[in-house]
Amino acid sequence: MRKTIIAGNWKMYKTIVEAIELANGLKRELFDLAGPDEIDIVLCPPFTALTEVFEVIINSNIGLGGQDMYWQDEGAFTGEVSGKMLKDAGCSFVIIGHSERRQFFGETNETVNKKIKAALKHGLTPIVCIGETLAEREKNMTFDVLKEQAHNSFKDINAEEILKTVIAYEPVWAIGTGKTATPAQAQEAHEYIRDLFVKLYGEKAARALRIQYGGSVKPENTAELISQPDIDGALVGGASLNIESFSQIVKRASEVKK
Ligand code: PGA
Predict the structure, then answer these.
(1) Phi/psi zone of residue 235: left (φ > 0), alpha (ψ -120 to 50 degrees), beta?
(2) Distance from residue 155's CA to the centre of ligand 1 (Å)
């Protein structure tokens, strides 16, 4: 049984005061839901609000994640934040290789690979994003892109380490567009990704690996997506910025029995 994981990626939204308000509201809505043994609930605020959000959710069933990190622990790297610093701020997760980082900030499979290794070194669970663009899907390249991203992003990462990571399949064309992949489209990609990992790491590790879906997840489509056999959770952008919608997503996901 793979534990469901629902993560909220707040992107570049929320001042400190707004972040505290959102975290408090979610804690109130979700406190009696399920313990961390049954579901992982993760908030990924901007760096500026990590400490304050951590103070709100400490000792609750909600965990904290960063949205990116650099692979060195410290040094003259202006503007960067390290895994060591995320850990220090209370994070146990970190999103790596989000398509917005790949598209706008020069992230590559090689940098993703270095970041995954550094995250694992610091005991952070990397949430590693992979996914195809619309042009790639239309050219029937979806599987090739996923294969290339998975092979290169996870280079030199062993089976034990893979179990400490989470994959997020995020079709770029579904992010922030309101266009969700249909449950069948998402399941097809998740199944393909799991098979890739079977080839890379063997059945046992691949069957235990959690693969979450991301791209216009909302309360209305959560249950159907999570019910798919290879979809183990959701990475939520827009709908994670609101107490009602994110708590509804978590509640609906926790009700899905597989
Ligand atoms: P969205 O974003 O839910 O707003 O589509 C998802 C993501 O970028 O992780």
Answers:
(1) beta
(2) 26
Amino acid letter at 64? L
Residue type, 131: G
Number of structural domains found in the chain? 1
> Of the listed 107, 136, 170, 190, which one is catalytic?
170
Q: Is the Cβ atom of 237 under 6 angstroms away from ligand 1?
A: yes
Judge whether 122 counts as a catalytic residue: no
Residue-wise pLDDT for 156-197, tens only, equals 999 999 999 999 999 999 988 888 889 999 999 999 999 999
Q: Which of 99, 212, 236, 249 to mutate to test the pocket of ligand 1 (most atoms within 8 A of CB)?
A: 236
Looking up residue 244, the CATH number of its domain turns out to be 3.20.20.70
Cα separation of 108 and 120, whole Å?
Answer: 18
| Structural domain that includes position 101 | 4-256
Reported as a single tens digit per residue, the pLDDT across 193-219 is 999 999 999 999 999 999 999 999 999
Residue 191 among the catalytic residues: no
Confidence (pTM) = 0.97
Kindly state the tokens that stand for 201. Answer: 């790491």
Residues 25 and 253 sit within 8 Å (Cβ to Cβ): no
